[in-house]
Amino acid sequence: MSSSSIFDPGSALPGPLASRRTRMLIAAGVSGALTLIEPRDLGPWQRAAYRTAVSVGSGLLGADLAREDEPIMDPARDGLLMGGLTMGLMDLTEHVDGKIVDILEGVGVPRPRLAMAVVNAASAALLYAKTPVGDGWLAASDAFEEPEPQDLPEPVRELIGLLLAAPEGGEELPGAPTLREQLAGVRTQDLGYPSSDVLLIVEDAEHLVVPHQQTWPATGSFEREGITYRLELQIGDGVLSMLSVMVDDETFADEAGVVDDEQLEAAIESLSSPDFRWPRPAEITVQTESEQAV
Question: 13 Cβ partners below 8 Å, 6+ apart?
């Protein structure tokens, strides 16, 4: 079992047990119950089991709170760190615990362990009460959830259709009918950053193309402000995967073939500009490789 599954109480608890209030009550109850135990009365094996229970409880508490607050690393590793520190300090903790019991008995508290259990249970509950809800790790984790697929923009669909179309007077590329079938239902998803690349999502494809991983041998080129660009269609796992716009670096090469890297970089950066617009099919010159890419 991985450490993340051990120290992720929210994922281990089903339905109602996953609620914050229930977890708070469980933490308070466990803390109070462990405090009722007198470590000085335990034998070697019993003490080892007691220390393990205290350390695991401390780790679970730390991991659970880290899910809602700001973790040092992440909830799983924070929980492991908390549990390890607790185990390492058990000698000191038990010594202080015994001193507190002796002091309470000395001032006339009839059942010092019960009083300490109530205080520790309340302290565990207070930790949850003071931890803000919806901040920290949970909110950050939600930000990394994949966005929902969206409809493919029609200009992009037209360009892909152009690359998959049968050439006039020529043989159709193997797999093109299958990919055109996929194109009818293809969708896209936001990459999370500005880019002219378009991620293509094909759900429940009935047929796949072979080879499963390839750059489609038909590419499209177009010019804009003296710069030559190239459209490339990627196939992944037998389905449409991505449409990319590439910059032809030969545009920036001098007579000796040396490329001006600054101009090339500026042209590549322009692909991520909000002003970038997709070319119309009439602007595209389709070129087919003599051999299909493998």
Answer: 22, 23
